[in-house]
Amino acid sequence: MSSIAFPKMTQRVTKPPLINVADKDQLSALLKRHKISTDEFDKILSATGRAPTLAELGVFSAMWSEHCSYKSSRIHLRRFPTKGPKVVVGPGENAGVVELEGDLCVAFKMESHNHPSFIEPYQGAATGVGGILRDVFCMGARPVANLNCLRFGARSHHKTPTLVAGVVKGIGDYGNCVGIPTVGGSVSFDETYNGNCLVNAMTVGLIHKNKIFKGYATGIGNLVVYVGSATGRDGIHGATMASDSFEDTAGASKTTIQVGDPFAEKLLMEATLEVLEKGLVVGIQDMGAAGLTSSSFEMAGRAGNGVYINLDHVPTRSANMTAYEIMLSESQERMLMVIEPGKWTELQGVLKKWQLSHAVIGEVTDTGRMQIDAKGVLEIDLPVAPLTDEAPVYERRMALRRSACDESSPLKKLRERLSSDSGYALDLYKKMIVDVGSKKQIIQQFDRHVGGKTVFDSERGGAAVIWIRSRDTTHKPFLGLAITAGCNERRVKNSPLIGASEAVRDCARAIIAAGGLPIAVTDCLNFGNAEDAEVMREFSDSVDGIAEACQQLGTPVVSGNVSLYNATGATSIFPTPMIGMVGKMDDVRKAVPATVESGQDLLICTITARSAGNSSLAASLAAKNANISPIEGAITAIDWMEEKKSHEAIYSLQKSGYLVAARAAGEGGIGLAAFKMAVNSVRLGASLEILTSDVSEFFGEGATAFLVAIKPENLRAARNIAEQSQVSLKSAATISRLGQLEANRRFGVIKTCFGPISTEDLLASFEAFMPVGTT
Amino acid sequence: MLTKPAFGRLRVGVVQFPGSNCDDDCLDVLRRHYEMDASKIWHQETSLPKLDALILPGGFSFGDYLRSGALAARAPIMESIKSFAARGGRILGICNGFQILTESGLLPGALLHNSSQKFICTHTKIKSPQGPVLKIPIAHAEGRFWIDEEGLRRLDDLDLIAYRYCADDGRVSVEVNPNGSVANIAGVYSKDKKILGMMPHPERATDMLMGGSSDGITVLNDFLQRI
């Protein structure tokens, strides 16, 4: 074995300087800066048995931050169903893993990067993508798709254009360079996000069951190896920052922002996958939030071992970095690996090939303690357990929101007006279309095709479909994935329990509509201030809603992330439990698009259009010129029997090949779903007719309703198939062709029971909806 | 035209720079569609194996932190690639590969930031002077082909413009120019027509399941059959 240049212990020259607990003023200022309560400090004292060093206080601050410890959310998350026959790795690891077919598995997770993106949209969003990619590839999975769910403030808000431009460019530049297609997600605007945008990124990767790696620091005497970019002063205390709400002077926190380098990520990804494939590593973890601190403590904690690290060996970008800075830096594109000493030479070979900095910085010990030397001083000497498994857990106060959740009179008034005033209804429909808008300007900045596996991407809406296309011949040749992510936050605000459950249902329907079968769920729970009792009640109810829906649909939660303190001053955002779902496609050749592409004659039918009640989107838009609160009004619970029957019907219709297109009615009801399904065809000059005259059905959200496009001659056969699932198929609209696509094109008409809409102006504002911004 | 098995006997190498991200996609088409025994060539190699043709794939070589392709054009393998070209070897550069070919002087012109100043990923229609209209996607931030007037005249005179962006009916106009390229140019040949560089990705349109186009096969067939 070649000798490893790694002195086990440096000569310790001085004793570490401890915090002076006698100076009460200084101590209280220090604790405030580290967001540690006096109760928590007492716990620290009992864990250490002495006053901590500054570096130790920093480590506690990061590890016990909301972001790393889930201290306010953990007791609720236990209610999620997390087990099932397909679950290979559940929550708690870097990503969840479920079985797809045979040994072939899918690893996936969603994560937030809200706070950094609001402070510095480009880097914040870019590093959000980088972090979630590492969570997936550090398990040994090769990423095949990225998705993102974005929420911005009102379009008219002065910050929105800059945030949109920066976030979109950040996501695009990072994902495009690493070479992972960005295939789906959701974008919407609401003033609730004026002071706190949401950037949630999801990565999906493929992995073999017997090649899954986890973050365990096992094997006493094994080496701890640092791999990737050198550590700088960027992102120090990012995890603590991400666990705080914004004061009015949010701009001041820029030093907590990490800077992304997608090229370094690409090299790190290829190197990581190569060393894992070659079996050179025992345990591995990304240095994500709280950097070297969380990766080393968590790996030691899971294995029940201790770790010794000498920080003098960590590659750094600046001279004279302190132990505090090195331990808490969130510099990007770094990995911590644990290897057997005998594998060092071979590991070095791979890392050199990919031009990555690397160094042995420590070893696994049997002490159960984390011991960290820097420049001859034992800066950190802490037991591992109090920082990981024994981190504080809080049962925060909860209170039901004061606003009435019954059918409030302003909303009733809206419905009455929609029924009696067709000019008003038509106007609201147009507003809805423009408000939702085409996302073309955003998605064109994402490489959606790299990898050659993309069958459907965000261009069509609906679920993304990925063709596995591996050279591995053990699975079906046209095996694929259907993936989707999103949440209708206005519905959640209205009723957290039902709205969150609908978010899961909506994802399942998107997958069903594409022809897939839902397998499992990841989530990204974006909520306001955890110390606000109403926010915690929203959180708890949302967890129950998700849990119920996942139970009903047989889609366990296998990974996820919680982002609390999305608030500015006393104002919390709408509760936004984003759901990501992965489904299986047996044959991607039979995938069903969510839009009709050409101007052929088609029938648009609804499947089980149960009258849907109110529309949060209509109410929100109406609120802008009438006195209606956009969040009021009761919504009814999902009828799961009805829901499952409609899934069955869609699935059998897809199998029999009758579906030209399929889309679930969601935000904006059947009216908006019909427009979205037909917009490409309408653009080509086709006219769209929507026959229903029931405003609840037209605008209402929450109905168990799918729209399907079928050829007129197949209606009878389709009806027979649907009836076998005991679902009534009701003809609702027809698409008919109106001429050819010419340079001097003629625009079509949308006919509704409220009257006709000429599409020329409508399509122009539909496509120009994005605010123009500069980075 | 050569048949598929005849193509299958060709030896084609795909050069891999750090940051290449379409290398596997290109290899996959060569192996799956043409059943070739194609292989990757690492950028630090100083010699090439015996080859009939080379592909420089898309991606972000060396992060494209300088100008796109500028650092890759100076990688160790480029000396052997230049000698391969001098011996009349056939080279196809796609996207970043095209940028590397212009940066290394193997193809004329330069690729500048798109006129929108934004990355653009979309389906385009392209056509060669005599060929059919092809649907091939693009995905780039620096794909605006630029050449001076004299250079453009020479390209025209020598029939070296391989592909132009066009409308569905084949007409070439400003409206269908996605990135502001001079004369809607999407791809060009070297003077001896043995080197082809293009911004659209033919490897991403090799099966109807991939965005509804297999027109990339027409482009690849055309390239391979000139060997």
Task: Write the topology of this structure.
The complex is a heterodimer of chains A (775) and B (227).
Chain A: H1 24-33, H2 38-48, H3 54-63, H4 66-69, H5 74-77, E1 87-89, E2 96-101, E3 104-112, H6 114-119, H7 121-137, E4 142-152, H8 160-178, E5 182-189, E6 198-208, E7 223-228, H9 238-241, H10 262-277, E8 283-286, H11 291-303, E9 306-310, H12 323-328, E10 334-339, H13 344-353, E11 358-365, E12 369-374, E13 377-383, H14 409-420, H15 422-436, H16 440-443, E14 454-456, E15 464-467, E16 480-486, H17 489-494, H18 496-514, E17 517-526, H19 533-553, E18 557-563, E19 567-568, E20 571-572, E21 576-585, E22 602-607, H20 616-622, H21 640-655, E23 661-664, H22 669-683, E24 687-690, H23 695-699, E25 706-710, H24 715-724, E26 729-736, E27 749-752, E28 755-758, H25 759-767
Parallel strand pairs in A: 4-5, 9-12, 17-18, 24-27
Antiparallel strand pairs in A: 1-2, 2-3, 3-6, 4-6, 7-10, 7-11, 8-10, 9-11, 12-13, 14-15, 15-16, 16-21, 17-21, 19-20, 22-25, 22-26, 23-25, 24-26, 27-28
Helix pairs in contact in A: 7-8, 7-10, 8-10, 15-20, 15-25, 18-19, 18-21, 21-24
Chain B: H1 4-8, E1 12-16, H2 23-32, E2 39-42, E3 53-56, H3 77-86, E4 90-94, H4 96-103, E5 110-112, E6 120-127, E7 134-140, E8 144-146, H5 149-157, E9 161-166, E10 185-189, E11 195-198, H6 216-225
Parallel strand pairs in B: 1-2, 1-3, 3-4, 4-11
Antiparallel strand pairs in B: 5-8, 6-7, 6-9, 9-10, 10-11
